Amino acid sequence: MATTAVPGMARAKARTDAGGRGHALWREWARSLDRPLTSYYLILGTAVLLIALGLVMVLSSTMVKSITETGSSFSLFQKQLVSAVVGLPLMILASHMPQALFRLVGYPTMILSVALLLLTVFQGVEVNGATRWLDIGGLVVQPSEPAKLSFALWGANILARKDELRELTEWRHLLIPLLPGCGLLVLLVLLGSNLSTALVFLITFLGLLWVVGAPGKLFVTMFGLVLALAVIVIAIEPYRMARVTSFLDPGADPLGSGNQSLHGLYALGTGGIFGVGIGASREKWGFLPFAESDFVFAIIGEEFGLIGTLLVLALFGVLGYAGLRVATRVKEPFPRLASFAIVTWLMGQVMINVGAVIGLLPVTGVPLPLVSYGGSSLITTMVALGVLLALAKAEPQAARALEARGPSQVQRALSWLGLENFVASMNNRGGTASRRVAAGRGPRTPGPRGGRTTAKHRNGPVPAGDRPRRNRQR
Which partner for 194 in 189, 404, 434, 464 could form a disulfide, CB atoms 3.0-4.6 Å apart? Predict the structure, then answer.
């Protein structure tokens, strides 16, 4: 007996088969992300791609400026290439360091950063009305860039130690000394007319409060304080007010404060969907100020089009996802806080830079991480990614997978240099502290006397009135 196929049933069966294949592909992709070292390779892969893209864009955007100033098309590119060559071994070395070392260097690097920023205020090199650079033996550096990493590690260590002592149930332990330390850095960079970097410090500060679980009222209060500070600092400086007015109406002063915003939008509009081609930008011929640094994203949009800009944003999105993945999968407080602080800093910079280029935010001097021209920014960001790679190895499954592989090439090189005992001692120190905290860890509940914290001792909890003087309520 012959049967007749019903067209509707055939189409439904085809849709079902296609849906089944789609679900199978989705499950396969999800399983591939669940591997032990997924976070590590996502961070490493996106970092390498963004560094390579940055070198290409610096070469493209600085050729005209370089040949005008020095007679060579590659002078600025060579400086950026040297910075990348210096940053790469530092990133690799940082990726093999134990987290106990990162906790150890938090305080000294924070003190050094404050000293360098203070020196910059009095002895800094002024460029375009801003004192952000310091000349050290002929080498011009920007101290505010390594200060971002120092603050992230120092703040994470402070809060992690308080979390291990169960002192984060009181608001003063959440803010002291984190708030004064951040305030000091913000004050020093504001003295150098660097509001954009001050905002990055404040964003990192808010990110640390968020991930550590600060009460909603406290977080909203600090957020309002940051906004109020930004408004006051903008209002007292005429050139900052001019940037805000040009942001609201760029065409009001097309040859003055609105010039950079307009030409950034011209570059993005000229690029269209697929761009005019690499090296074929017109705006870099003196029309767009700071095309290689603050507005390199506009040159990307002009030469690679909308597709190129979306791919760059996708790379940063993957980098942010991988960093947050590390923060959610590690068990100890310090790697969770440090990885979240680094991701907040980098993604905050990306949003500020891109927002200024596409006209969603006023123009600022924040570089696009790994892509913009600037040796201090590139080296610091690469070291920060090395720290993030080391923290990615602290994921429980990643640690077991690496132990099964045996020593890496860098670990063998450290053994040749006689540093294997130092690294092993730092690993044992960090592991012992983590095991000690995990063994005595329990649900964090407010103690007696209206929420006072109860200190921990090896023989049991110590009443609040009997704890050492440094832990008493004042």
Answer: 189
Backbone angles phi, psi at 131, to 5 degrees: -105, 90
Token pair 């993005």 is found at 268
Question: From CA 248, how far away is CA 52, in angstroms rounded?
Answer: 35
Q: Burial code of 46-58, b = ≥16 C-beta within 10 A, e = fewer? A: bbebbbebbbbbb
List for the chain the helix, strand, coil content (%; round to 5). 70, 5, 25
Phi, psi of 7 (to 5 degrees): -60, -40
Q: What is the CA radius of gyration of the chain?
A: 25
Task: Burial-class residue 236 by CB neighbours within 10 Å (0-12, 13-18, 19+).
Answer: exposed
Put residue 438 in one of left, alpha, beta given phi > 0 → left and psi -120 to 50 → alpha.
Answer: alpha
* Closest residue by Cα to residue 387 from 105, 51, 198, 114: 105
pLDDT in tens, 167-207: 888 888 899 999 999 999 999 999 888 888 999 999 999 99
Q: What is the pLDDT of residue 263?
A: 92
Measuring CA to CA, how many Å separate 161 from each of 37, 205, 397? 27, 16, 24
Whether residue 396 has a cis bond before it, omega within 30° of 0: no
Q: Given this model, what pLDDT does residue 425 score?
A: 59
CA distance 372 to 394: 30
Residue type at 173? H
pLDDT of residue 447: 40
Interval 380-416: pLDDT, tens: 999 999 999 999 998 887 777 776 666 666 556 556 5
Tell me the average pLDDT across 223-238. Answer: 90
Inter-residue contact 152 to 226 (CB < 8 Å): no
Alpha-carbon distance 381 to 392, whole Å? 16
Helix or strand run (H / E) with residue 130: strand 130-136
- List pLDDT tens digits, range 71-84: 888 999 999 999 99
Name the residue with higher pLDDT: 248 or 214. Answer: 214
349 token code pair: 């910079």
Q: 219-225 long-range CB contacts below 8 Å, 24 or more apart?
A: 222/175, 222/179
